[in-house]
């Protein structure tokens, strides 16, 4: 059966690709998709000027939401930080009910969907366009984004669907439709509308940032280490795309669990290796750390030579942070909702760690390496993306780009697996669950891997950004109606926690 | 007071000797015998979203299989021989879980079989028997 499926996939891939002369495939794909991608991006990033700089409304939308949630939940991003760690560690997990999805596992799965090219290539783009100061705004956006994640993941668990066969499905589609209907009859149709909008954008996002951007940037990195423009692969993005698509296809259509299992074991290892190497480079140039931080702070508030001045810097930092940690976008709520708990708010606490690890830790390390090694300078071509990060690591450790390439391809791969799942959940929400709808989505997903690898970064990144950020409109709008629900859950739980009514287990019980 | 014995089983055949030995002990001292099977599981693994979604269902299947294929036949057989036996199935790290259970049930003795693995393999990957001997708070009997 799976052989037939894989055959169908490959067929679909070939049909979806204009098969012209070998050498021109990449540029033809680019020409065909670019105008469409630009139009979509133009619409989503509709801007209005702040202090003379055009700022896309969606970014203001995300940041305003994150600030509101931070205040509304009285700095939940800081006050629940310690408790979140206890939950991840398993202090409150009942040992008599093991074998279910733990907080740790839900967080790890969500993280492998968010830690990806955004942390490596995206940060390089932010620092190129916005200067070192963009790092400051990126960290701030990461800290505020924790509150957005808290809300959406709590809601994801609270309103998930539990089916009779024991499987669960959650995410914004469900909390928007069920949650708003529960608030009042008048909101019922709005909730349904928002849920459908979200699902449509989520499918788009799974083709864009969760797919094309990943394929594109990992291809760029592979070309870079194999000799740049002189590389045999240089104009064969479609070929790289086909190979990656075939591997992803084996997992998501062929159901080959081995590949996914191996990847899910290697990815955390690569993440730790990336962070450790980054820290090693930073501390090996420890004399330059103060200067780097000075550049970050200075650059954040007095941006000379950056297009758009301080607002321009802020924009770049916020944009890349949001793209990387996806707070307010709603995607991670889908992954988090698989956890086994009867207190939805606990998963919200755990989810605080996602933007923290993703943005405040990993993105910051990338930025510091780029700044400290002096690889950053304003004349660097921003479309270099991942190549800039690679060059920064290479300047300290000459062979590291090879490791980085492996990491980049694996991150891209695991992010694609996660996003194919998010996209499929949204897709089946729209079109129902059946073999046919399932396979149609998966074939489309794989086609976009090939397209993404073949296109130029400029249009890929605009389209990816557009689709992912579009999800934030219906998601956040719905959440505003649901914050009282979360507040009630939070207050009840927090009272239990403070009064010591929550039972600790195992070693944690002895510690208490 | 009756003493409590705990016997760890991997599968119905491979733990034959451990169960037989535990049965002999149980008869002599008229003990309550727990027949335990631990399904290898860790709370700290990295899974795909699909695996997480299906986890609850899979867990039910695992428990069902452990009952029908491992624990229930053994317990039934023991009871027919007049042993006061009871089955327990848990998820977790095998050695740690056996040790915790022994504490919880206040067992006088933990009895397990030994897999006939080579010395090198045991050194590299560790064996449940040797780990259990290291960490248990109760006497451990390893049946070869």
Task: Characterise the protein shown here.
The complex is a heterodimer of chains A (512) and B (144). Chain A has a single domain (2-511), classed as Up-down Bundle (Amino acid/polyamine transporter I), CATH 1.20.1740. Chain A is 75% helix and 2% strand. Chain A has 23 helices and 4 strands. The N and C termini of chain A lie far apart (54 Å). Residues 1-23 of chain A have low confidence and may be disordered. Chain B is α/β, with parallel strands linked by helices. Chain B has one domain: Rossmann fold, CATH 3.40.50.620. Helices cover 51% and strands 22% of the residues of chain B. Chain B has helices at 16-29, 49-80, 94-105, 119-125, 128-135, and strands at 4-8, 32-40, 84-92, 109-113, 140-143. Chain B has a 5-stranded parallel beta sheet with strand order 3-2-1-4-5, sandwiched between helices. The mean pLDDT of chain B is 85. Chain A binds chain B through residues 90, 93, 95, 98-102, 104-106, 108-109, 112-113, 165-169, 260-261, 264-265, 267-268, 334-335, 338-340, 417-418, 421-422, and chain B through 39, 41, 43-57, 59-60, 62-63, 90-92, 100.
Mind sketching the topology for me?
The complex is a heterodimer of chains A (512) and B (144).
Chain A: H1 2-16, H2 25-44, E1 47-50, E2 53-56, H3 57-72, H4 76-79, H5 81-89, H6 103-114, H7 117-130, H8 133-158, E3 161-162, E4 168-169, H9 172-183, H10 188-225, H11 237-252, H12 257-284, H13 289-301, H14 309-325, H15 331-336, H16 344-351, H17 353-372, H18 386-394, H19 400-431, H20 435-454, H21 457-470, H22 472-498, H23 506-511
Antiparallel strand pairs in A: 1-2, 3-4
Chain B: E1 4-8, H1 16-29, E2 32-40, H2 49-80, E3 84-92, H3 94-105, E4 109-113, H4 119-125, H5 128-135, E5 140-143
Parallel strand pairs in B: 1-2, 1-4, 2-3, 4-5
């Amino acid at each position: 059966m799976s052989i037939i499926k894989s055959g169908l996939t490959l067929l679909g891939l070939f049909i979806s690709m204009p098969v012209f002369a070998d050498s021109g495939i990449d540029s033809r794909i680019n020409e065909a998709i670019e105008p469409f991608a630009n139009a979509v991006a133009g619409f989503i990033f509709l801007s209005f000027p702040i202090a003379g700089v055009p700022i896309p409304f969606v970014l203001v939308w995300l940041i305003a939401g994150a600030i509101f949630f931070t205040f509304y939940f009285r700095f939940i991003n800081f006050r629940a930080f310690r408790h979140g760690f206890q939950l991840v560690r398993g202090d409150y997990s009942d040992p008599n009910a093991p074998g279910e999805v733990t907080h740790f596992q839900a967080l790890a799965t969500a993280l492998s969907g968010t830690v990806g090219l955004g942390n490596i290539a995206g940060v390089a783009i932010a620092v190129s366009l916005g200067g070192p100061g963009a790092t400051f705004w990126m960290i701030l956006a990461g800290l505020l984004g924790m509150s957005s994640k808290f809300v959406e993941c709590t809601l994801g668990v609270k309103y998930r669907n539990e089916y009779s066969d024991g499987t669960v499905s959650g995410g914004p589609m469900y909390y928007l439709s069920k949650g708003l209907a529960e608030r009042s009859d008048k909101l019922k149709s709005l909730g349904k509308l928002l849920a459908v909008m979200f699902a449509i954008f989520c499918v788009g996002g799974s083709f864009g940032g969760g797919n094309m951007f990943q394929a594109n940037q990992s291809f760029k990195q592979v070309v870079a280490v194999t000799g740049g423009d002189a590389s045999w692969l240089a104009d064969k993005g479609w070929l790289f795309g086909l190979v990656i698509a075939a591997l992803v296809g084996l997992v998501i259509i062929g159901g080959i669990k081995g590949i996914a299992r191996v990847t899910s074991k290697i990815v955390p290892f690569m993440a730790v290796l990336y962070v450790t190497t980054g820290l090693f480079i930073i501390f090996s140039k420890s004399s330059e750390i103060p200067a780097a931080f000075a550049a970050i702070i200075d650059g954040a508030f007095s941006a000379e030579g950056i297009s758009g001045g301080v607002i321009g810097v802020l924009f770049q930092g916020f944009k890349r942070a949001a793209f990387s940690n996806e707070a307010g976008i709603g995607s991670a709520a889908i992954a988090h909702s698989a956890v086994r708990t009867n207190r939805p708010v606990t998963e919200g606490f755990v989810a605080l760690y996602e933007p923290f690890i993703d943005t405040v830790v990993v993105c910051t390390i990338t930025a510091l390496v780029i700044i400290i090694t002096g690889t950053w300078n304003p004349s660097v071509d921003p479309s270099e993306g991942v190549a800039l990060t690679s060059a920064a690591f290479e300047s300290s450790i000459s062979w590291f780009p090879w490791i980085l390439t492996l990491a980049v391809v694996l991150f891209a791969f695991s992010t694609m697996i996660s996003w194919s799942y998010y996209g499929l959940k949204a897709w089946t929400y729209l079109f129902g669950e059946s073999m046919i709808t399932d396979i149609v989505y998966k074939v489309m997903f794989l086609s976009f891997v090939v397209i993404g690898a073949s296109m130029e970064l400029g249009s890929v990144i605009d389209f990816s950004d557009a689709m992912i950020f579009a999800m934030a409109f219906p998601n956040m709008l719905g959440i505003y109606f649901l914050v009282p629900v979360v507040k009630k859950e939070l207050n009840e739980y927090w009272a239990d926690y403070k009064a010591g009514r929550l039972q600790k287990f195992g070693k944690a019980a002895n510690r208490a | 007071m009756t003493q409590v014995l705990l016997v760890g089983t991997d599968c119905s055949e491979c733990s034959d000797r451990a169960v037989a030995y535990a049965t002999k002990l149980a008869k002599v001292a008229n003990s309550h015998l727990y027949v335990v099977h631990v399904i290898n599981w860790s709370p700290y693994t990295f899974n795909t979203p699909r695996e997480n979604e299906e986890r609850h269902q899979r867990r039910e299947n695992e428990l069902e299989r452990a009952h029908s294929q491992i624990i229930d036949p053994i317990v039934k057989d023991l009871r027919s021989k007049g042993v006061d036996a009871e089955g327990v199935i848990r998820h977790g790290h095998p050695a740690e879980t056996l040790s915790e259970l022994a504490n919880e049930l206040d067992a006088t003795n933990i009895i397990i079989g030994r897999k006939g693995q080579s010395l090198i393999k045991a050194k590299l990957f560790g064996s449940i028997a040797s780990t259990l001997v290291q960490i248990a708070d109760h006497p451990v009997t390893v049946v070869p």
